[in-house]
Write a structure and sequence with these properties.
CATH architecture of the largest domain: 2-Layer Sandwich
Number of helices: 4
CATH class of the largest domain: Alpha Beta
Number of strands: 7
Strand order of the largest sheet: 3-2-7
Helix content: 25-40%
Shape: elongated
Length: about 140
């Protein structure tokens, strides 16, 4: 039985508004890219970076002093995640410029669960980087 290719909604919507000749060309490009996308997905299953599960931990609480002072910013944190998804080490790689914001995010996000990185389909220890944006309510 032949497989039917289902185009993503955004491509279907775009094809609806294109002239027939352009729609056929766009559909051909989408079909030509489909095997590459499937190959990339298989590759991604074998090699992936460690990822954080934000739902596994509470949102960092805005430090009172920083809130009163109007401090905001983005902190980039590095987490060394082992093969089991546990944080072994952490560091601030780019500061907000406010130690209270940086440390609060580092401590809070260090309590989150992580999915370990994969190399050749096997979990490995590696550094992963997370940006946390502090904005005043």
């Amino acid at each position: 039985m032949a497989k039917s290719l289902v185009l993503p909604k955004t491509i279907r919507s775009a094809l609806h508004y294109l002239p027939i000749r352009a729609a056929c060309c766009a559909a051909g490009i989408a079909l030509a890219c489909a095997p590459a996308a499937q190959a990339q997905t298989a590759e991604d299953a074998q090699h992936s970076a460690a990822t954080i599960d934000f739902a596994s931990c509470p949102k960092p609480v805005y430090p009172q002093r920083d809130m009163q002072a109007g401090h905001q910013g983005t902190v980039t944190l590095g987490f060394l995640v082992d093969e089991n998804g546990h944080v072994k080490d952490s560091k601030v790689t780019q500061s907000t410029g406010f130690m209270g914001l940086d440390m609060t995010a580092q401590i809070a996000l260090g309590k989150c669960s992580f999915r370990p990185a994969l190399e050749n389909g096997k979990p490995v220890q590696t550094w992963t980087y997370v940006k946390y944006v502090w904005t005043l309510p």
